[in-house]
Amino acid sequence: MSDAPLVSVEIRAGWRLVRLDRPDKLNAFTEAMHRELAAALDAAAADPDCRAVLLTGAGRAFSAGQDLSDRIRASAEGPLDLGASLETFYEPLVRRIRDLPCPVVVAINGIASGAGINVALHGDIVIAAKSAKLTQPFARIGLIPDAGGTWLLPRLAGRAVANRLVFLAETISGEEAAVIGLVAEAVEDEKLMARAEAICDGLAKGPRQALARLKRLMQASEANDLAAQLRAERETQQACGRGAEYLEGLRAFAEKRPPKFD
Fold it and tell me: Which residues lie across from 111 on neighbouring strands?
């Protein structure tokens, strides 16, 4: 058995590249991969110099979702408790991505299926290669979308499109995903990583505290009514206005230079 890592990490100037690295299996999730990915995200969260994380996949897939080989073998012994797998692995993974105190950029480089696509869509900025293949195949095997899929899809693409994707289990391209609002933009395949890295380079030069607060605020808007969101904006803006980042932004504007945030 190979001891090669299932998740690789590269430390860049102010950000980290985290790559699912099981290309021979289309980066399908196993328990070992979950553990390595959790460790990589926890390390990024603990690093004061990490201002963004870029999550992508090796080879021709972002992730094909859950590796079903073990479940096929286990199913011979009786019904499976898939809820336990979600509670133990996928739900904590989603929370890690959303709770990370810096933006998570996701580059969908190829096949993104099942839990793989739903994990990807929890990123703060999600871009896709134009030829990427995105699918919610759950209905084909008698399951429902998980890893937050039923919560995310209507919010991103609207109820009608979300229903089409999950009931018909259709495969769409990265280009169509951008048109329907599932991802922020679709990029020519050969330019995907350059675009994703440029986004992270820009975020790494940004105001750390303001971006962390912005991430929390944008997530809060998913549950807040207008009154609650206005209150949250006011309180967050008060905190930003009292900070050194805003003062540096003002000075940079007055001096007609790019700001230099600590």
Answer: 61
259 inside domain = no
Residue 72 clears pLDDT 80, i.e. is over it: no
Tens of pLDDT, residues 215-261: 999 999 999 999 999 999 999 999 999 999 999 999 999 999 999 99
Q: Is residue 238 part of a domain?
A: yes
Order the strands of the 171-173 sheet from edge to edge: 61-63, 111-113, 133-135, 171-173
Examine residue 260 and state whether it is found in any structural domain, yes or no: no
Residues 6+ apart with CB under 8 A from 206: 51, 261
Tokens standing for residue 75: 């199913």
Expressed as residue numbers, the domain containing 243 is: 208-254
Question: Within this chain, do residues 105 and 224 fall inside the same structural domain, yes or no?
Answer: no
Longest dimension (CA), the chain: 71
**According to the model, what pLDDT value does residue 1 have?**
46
Residue corresponding to tokens 């090669």 = 4
Q: What is the pLDDT of residue 70?
A: 65
Residue 104: inside a domain: yes
Query: Per-residue pLDDT tens for 86-118?
Result: 999 999 999 999 999 999 999 999 999 999 999
Is the same domain home to 69 and 198? Answer: yes
**pTM score over 0.85:** yes
Q: Which candidate, 103, 15, 6, 13, places its Cα nearest to that of 63?
A: 6
DSSP per residue, 201-245: HHHHTS-HHHHHHHHHHHHHTTT--HHHHHHHHHHHHHHHHTSHH
- Give CA–CA dist 40/9, Å, rounded: 7
